[in-house]
Amino acid sequence: MRAEEPAGTAGAEAVLDMRGVGVALGQGRRRRTVLHDVTLRIEPGRTMGLIGSSGSGKTTAGRIALGLLRPDTGTVTVSGMPYSRFRREHAGKVQAVLQSPQWSFNPRRRLGDSITEPLGVVARTPHGPGRIDREARRELCLTMLRQVGLDPAHAGRYPHELSGGQRQRAAIARALITGPEFVVFDEAVSALDVAVQQKVLRLIRQLQETHGFGALFISHDLAATRIASDRIAVMLAGEIVEEGSPADVLDNPGHPYTRRLLETL
Ligand SMILES: Nc1ncnc2c1ncn2[C@@H]1O[C@H](COP(=O)(O)OP(=O)(O)OP(=O)(O)O)[C@@H](O)[C@H]1O
């Protein structure tokens, strides 16, 4: 693994620090190790791309990074805190954008209600803003719609009335409305055609500059990962076999698996 720090961020507190993480999944005789000794460190405002063939463990790593799955071994901290404490004190500060927002949006709710839904959770945490009244929620929703390039009128629409790209923008608005420190994008642009993908990727980069969140960008799409990422980690059978800058990993791969992956993906 290439371990050099990205320029200018050495020593910054990581938004996500996974160290030596291992996990086995499945029951009884079908139980098997899915992740082995995975170490990932993501700085504020930076994106770590995670690539690997199907079944290599990327989504499982993402679920651990989101605190949805507890590892059997190793440690995970978010902004220096273990997950249990972070979630209690800072709900909404870790968010996810997944592949198919038509499944994650309630088809019978207007987008404005879905986008502002995470604010309810944040309001109830110790460091949260308290109850956010209807007018303030509406204002925040409009701000987010504007930031992701949607029209205020979209707040009143239903998910099926939007294109795939617009729905993905709405999913990003919902993820960012709580001001997350860390966002997992799991195949977030994979369902979009290439031209829309490029626009959404540029949008994510712009928003990262404004909001400063760190990100884990899980994808099997190398072109998208190159645009999205400051660093790229390569996963093979639950292990990170290589990590480096996009140019290092994609143009000058050090591991034979990465070279094979570049030929096949
Ligand atoms: N709940 C589970 N129980 C048993 N095995 C599981 C479970 N979840 C995932 N796995 C197995 O763990 C391995 C890694 O799965 P994971 O979804 O993390 O891979 P991936 O790299 O994200 O794949 P893809 O690119 O196809 O989404 C796979 O072999 C999968 O079958």
Automatic annotation (TrEMBL):
In its UniProt record, which GO terms are filed under biological process?
A: transmembrane transport
Q: Which SUPFAM superfamilies match?
A: P-loop containing nucleoside triphosphate hydrolases
Annotated GO MF terms: ATP binding; ATP hydrolysis activity
Please provide the record's keywords in A-Z order.
ATP-binding, Nucleotide-binding, Transport
> Where's the ABC transporter domain?
16-262
Name one matching Pfam family: ABC_tran
Instruction: Give the matching PROSITE patterns.
Output: ABC_TRANSPORTER_1, ABC_TRANSPORTER_2
According to its UniProt record, which protein family does this protein belong to?
Belongs to the ABC transporter superfamily.
Matching entries from PANTHER family are given as: D,D-DIPEPTIDE TRANSPORT ATP-BINDING PROTEIN DDPF-RELATED, TRANSPORT ATP-BINDING PROTEIN
Name used for this protein in its record: ABC transporter domain-containing protein
Its taxonomic placement starts with:
Bacteria, Bacillati, Actinomycetota, Actinomycetes, Micrococcales
